Queue: 2 jobs
Job 1
Amino acid sequence: MHWGVLALVLLNVGLLALTNPTRAISAGFVVEPDLSPRDPSTTPIYESRFVGAGVPAFSHSASMVEISDGRLRAFWMGGGSHEGKSDVAIYTALFDPATNAWTRETPIIQVDDSQRHLHRNIHTVGNATIHKFDSGRLLLWYVSVSVGGWAGSSINMIHSDDDGETWSAPKRLVTSPFFNLSSLVKSPPVRFTDGTIGLPIYHEFMGKFCELLRLTPDGKVLHKQRLTKGRRTLQPAIIPRSETEATAFLRRSDKAPRRAITVATSDGGLSWGEPLILDMPNPGSPISALRLDTGELLIVFNNVPRKRDKLTLAISSDEGVTYDIIKEIESKGDHLSNGFGYPWLMQSSTGQFHLLYTWRRERIKHLTFNRAWLEQNRSSR
């Protein structure tokens, strides 16, 4: 057999092995509980602050998790001269609710360290996303680029057993048989009832589309399923509704129409329906959402068709098809150019809501609010 033909056959076998639903785990989604009923406060809380002391020049794409003592640990890429540069690192900082303050940021992943441990050239690092097991172990996935731009990226994983004080050496995930390139992360993982993890990823080389990786707790890829095809979707955020049902909000990557897209599953993520174009504006920016105990969704998105000039909190009872605006969190001033975006919305064990987002690509901003504030603002509209 000709070597070129053999290579194509092996590539096809690899693709089938990664995407064949018969290899998928039958376990369903874990629906994360709405914790806001734990907060007995009737006093509305709405506070904002910046994360860390301010890494110079560049900060972008934050994620966050609650650690064992109730503090919050954030992660983001920054510190460099610009996105995609070799001086960018992954930073972390801690928020203590008792003092209402963030610690100074420290780097945990730098290009030189990644290069040494992964035994390959690394040009830059990018988005990071975080997951905590019931045992307390933290898993953090981050993007690295060896060739070209983001289309030449790979996903790497590190773990911590001491609330993020120290971290393991990185391991590169095998997510594609095509030179294991062009896989990226942004949004929170989802959990399955058998303990496996669903990692939303996206692909940018020779097409732009979304996928869901099914991983073992130690990061082995069990199964990969397409959410979409083609060249128009990125950065899926998956929000389960039941063990079998979930909605994924997708960033629009092409130019028209400039609106958000959703896809849905009714079989635990083994297959996904046709994309639905919403009336929700999308200027090419990811969306974040949480499900309340009413079944409604809290959604944070850029409520403009171009640029990321306005960041909005809304609530929807029909998976984003229609929505009511709760608050315009940020809106462009005359001097702003880089806008606001890349939201990460979560709840702490106290029931308070926490939102991180990129502020002008200079800082990461942290917003805290509670159920009393949410209900007050909802009823006033």
Job 2
Amino acid sequence: MKTISSGSPYVTIERSQWKRMRERKNIELTEDQLDKMRGLNEFLSMQEVRDIYAPLSRLIKVYYENYLHLNRKRKTFLGLGNEKIPYIIGMAGSVAVGKSTTARIIKELASMWPEKPSVYIVTTDGFLYCNRELESRGIMSRKGFPESYDLKSMINFLYGVKSGIKSIEIPQYSHLIYDIIEEKKLIKDPDIIIFEGLNVLQTHTKKLSAMGPDLMVSDFFDFSIYVDAEEEIIKKWFMERFLKLKATAFKDPKSYFRKYAEIDDQEAIERASYIWDEINGKNLKENIIGTKYHAELIMEKTTNHMVEKILLRKI
């Protein structure tokens, strides 16, 4: 395997080599199941699942089994009871890069392991401040930036999970109304949690760390993944998704973005480009891309959301 550069802590595994690392048995995944996991306007073939995500599932299983083994040894050494502490996978990357789809596929494949672990996906969207709070703070236009999240609640959730609390309710976010909703999501007796969001690998700023104990979200991760692509490719995916939403979800009378449903495609393209340049692209450059090398594993995508190489930390 070739390294990124001399002395790099990562190894680079090309697609042709990576796909040979999956287990030989067939994947018990149907086209209908895969269709439900695809992101909007995102092509994902069963071949991509076999070549990329099946080996990833196998690798995560190795890390997870080592985690369980270490926990058993540690409990024996300390004379502790058989308390289950969930395994947390952090998932980071830009808007529109395919984090949610990656999380859904990992969840589905991990749920098919012989042990049948209980796997949950938790997104940081639920920990955004509500729109009213964002407006009162004057940061509504910076939704998705680090300061728009209730970091204290996020840390408390992860702290509770790693403390062995069996059931925790967390807030939920609606992309339709673009706000937090009243309904909560119950996380009950998880084995694995995939914690997915833009800034989950970010280190503290002084402003954030002043809120309490000097903890980072990533302090609670047992494994972490960064989904990556060149910005110009991600922007193209974002704009394609915006046009797709314009023709579908934006038409819903309850949609926060209802006003964009009636504009013509050229105006929509210009608006989407502006949103990317002033918000999502800026957030990527200022707060997200710099966290990439905090991850244990980096998935580098090219056009059509195909992964061309994997970067894996050596230790």
